[in-house]
Prior knowledge:
By secondary structure, the protein is mainly beta. Helices cover 11% and strands 39% of the residues.
Amino acid sequence: MLLAFGIAANVKHEIGRGEGGLDIRRGTKHFAAGAKVWVLPPRWGDGGEQVGVVGRHRGSPGPYILLVMPRRHLENFRTQGVYSPALFAAMTRPMKRGGSPGTSFALWEDKEAAAQVAAMWNQPTMEAHFDEPRGWGYVPDPPPMELERDRVVFYLAHFNANRAWYSSRLPPREAGDAA
Length: 179
């Protein structure tokens, strides 16, 4: 029997960690690379950067666990029906930490709402920081070399596995470049 609709995803095989995101790990501390998890609707108003997920702990056939993790560690978002009573109970279980006692995540309103969000999350994006005017936003992954934002042209100054930095100043020219 169908209990709800949800968004299923897989944990990325390679996740950049540490300074600059250059330390590459397989999976996360709690989930193996490629593990299927169920993503709950965003709760904090951060655009879904941190999401609640339900899945089976790395190397354990035991009960489902519920935890919060960065959405950038997930890929292959898709809408699926929830048929397992144990999974449904884990998805609606109150949080132990990180919220008011007795609060739990909500479920997706319907299949269409879940499908719309899954399609949006499948578009590769990365966080971007801009120098003048100061601010941040999101750009495609991989980031473009230059882009226009609020009628200012920004040039890619640096990027790593986690984010891109843009500058409104022209990049320096190489000594051999023609003027």
